[in-house]
Amino acid sequence: MRLDRGVAAQRVAVADAVCARVGLDGTELPARLPATADVFAAGGTSLAHVAVIVRLLGSPPATRLAPEVWAGAEIQLADAAAGYTPREVQQWGTALLEALDADGPEPDDTPPPLVNELRLTRFAAKPGGRLVGRYDDAALFEAVAAVLDAKAAPLTADEGRSRVERKAEALAEVCGWVLEHAELPAVGGRRPVLTVQIRLADLETRARAGMLEFGGQLSPAALRHLACDCGVVPVVFDGAGQPLDVGRLTRSIPDGLRRAVTARDRGCAHPGCDRPPSWCEIHHVLPWEHGGPTALGNLVMLCKAHHRQIHTTDWAVRLRGGLPEFIPPPWIDAEQKPRTRPRTWNPTRAREGPTRIAEFA
């Protein structure tokens, strides 16, 4: 009949439940679910309804019921199927069986061990990969869920990411923060870092790709995003690919300049975003590969989500009067009116001239 395996299995299960049976001696026997069979034969329910009833009556709570109680439950489920959707029958029937099976399963002094697992699988034909996790330990799951719930909230009123996209990026953002700020065990004698391998000549000529240790090849936009604010370790190779010299780690944004940007922007500069400086990166307004200088007048502080937004969408940022302002794409604002984050401003102090800001470690 050229049916998918799941559809074929469903039809076989339904037929086994609602069709009359024949005994070994040729005697015709009633259907295994007689009340359901009557409703189904009268056209009062569908294959999906019967499949739900079959699953419910084969569940552990149903198998613990006495035969007469089980038969009564089947009659009630058949009646419910005539007026409910399959999903509603599933919910209603689950509650019914739990009520009938008031004692529940026998106590088990040796419960099965908790299973906590997370699988990371790299895509074979494209960059990136898949994470599939399971947490039987409620405390561990609650810790993960609480962090993602806090970090996956919409950042601004113009948030264009779906909730699942925000959660995925929140997990990566938290991991990135840990890589930058937390003490982690050494891997091969060094602190875990996000490493991109690319030739310097390629990087200086608008490289179109780079290679990650785990995630595979980077897109040009992702590479430019990382290159905005990164640490660079020069490694010199000979013609045979053997490393000849490894230099020191240097930041693309010097520490003093980073402090100046922090003092000006005080966190993500995007209007409506409240990410603090420790969760932010530094973005070159005019890309450095296009000749943009690494100077205060060309740098702006952005959280990871808005940094990625500037690199991958039609949002734009510029500095006007030394302060960042953001230009939305036409589909958000047809007039593309620049937006800035509100700032506390004291006209009296402004007339007195610049204020020196001291920072104490």
From TrEMBL:
CDD domains: HNHc. It holds the Pfam family HNH. Residues 256-308 form the HNH nuclease domain. InterPro entries: DUF222, HNH, HNH_nuc. Residues 332-361 are annotated as: Disordered. Transmembrane segments: none annotated. Belongs to the Rv1128c/1148c/1588c/1702c/1945/3466 family. This is DUF222 domain-containing protein. It comes from Pseudonocardia lutea.
